[in-house]
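Help: why these numbers?

___
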Amino acid sequence: MKKVVAIVGAGFSGSAVAIQLLGQLHSAASVILIDSAATSGGVAYRTSHQTHLLNVPAGNMSALPQDPDSFVEYCRRSLQDVEGGTFVPRALYARYLTYLLGDASERNTCGGTLTRLTARVVGMDLSGATGVLTLANGERIQVDHVVLATGHLVPNTPSQALQVLSHVHYVSDPWTGNLDKLAQRSRDVLLVGSGLTSLDVVRQLRACGHRGTIFMVSRRGLMPNAHRDALPLRQHHEEFLGSLLVSTPSVSEYLRLVRRYIGKGRVEGWDWRDVIAALRPITPQLWQRLNREEKLRFRRHLQVFWDVHRHRIAPCVSDELQHLRGLGIIKPVAGAIVKVLRDGDGVRVFIRLRGDRGEFQCHVARVINCTGPGTDVARAGDVLVEQLVSEGVLQDVLNGMGIRVDGMYRVASGLDQVSYIGPLLRAEYWEATAVPELRQHAFNVANIIFDRIG
């Protein structure tokens, strides 16, 4: 009897596993790709707004580690002058994943099949020889292997003060709120967070006609740095990387060595971005050398600085945002929300400025949570994930940073028939949210499944 592999989630991770199983390994299994949305790509790539560009150059966005030019070649079918360093609309990437899924299914020579199922998985029973998934409509599916690729969790409420607001004045998740409707008003808004999500929201609001002031509050008021227009020039960092891997495993020692090397590069005329890029292949090793206390220390003190240097934006997006900032249209504020009051047809927000520099107030029509995806499975906002947490199948690691998995991508229960792939791998690998890392994880997961069931 044909084996059944169910992949829960059709974002990048789930789609990439299916593509590897059927198109690269030619698995004979029946692969069922289940998602509540009918399209591939997950939240990250499901956007239809052309202002939402990939934050990674096209040349680094292939879904296939075996074919690094795959995405660039796909782009050239519909766009002219796409090079490896081009930043293209995110919506194009969703179409690319859909194309790869269809191509993988067609090229499979061993009887493997792909079934797309638009549904929500609300339960999983692993007590028998095979697993059973329960869908929201009551349907049950018997499976031999389950890949949990549930993607990003819903954003957490960033401040208790915001809990008093109704949906009229508070958007808890910008990707489910009607931002286009809000954009028609020339009213001021407050974005909580100043990272990648907030920058997407700014560009979407402006493109849809919003002309009010956009305040952005975050702990330090930092915004992501830009990529360079040119591709990296310096590629030889072996001695530096080797010194990191034998250094004292502490956040302070890593920071000292990285700063010193960046300083050396400044003198020699190369860019700090080269150093950050060079760190990526060994980041999981550096992370795994740290003990629990050092990992938590990194999260408390350095993660915000790492994020704005590591997770960069297209140069054209950076130029646009700096222009808006210069005009006073976007106003970053470093501080924390301490109080929110209804005030007329809007809300008045009180912000304690960082460094005890007093208080800042703004009157806005809407507060939009732009803190990004949640990582705490205890507050997942997903029925299936919450069930698996309550049963101990999924276990939180590092105070809400991710979940426990082993080197075979098995979750805490240790069951061979369940694999996890997605952003919650960051607790074990740190680098687990971008395509260059996730495509390799997808390759690994697919090979493990193929070795187990064919």
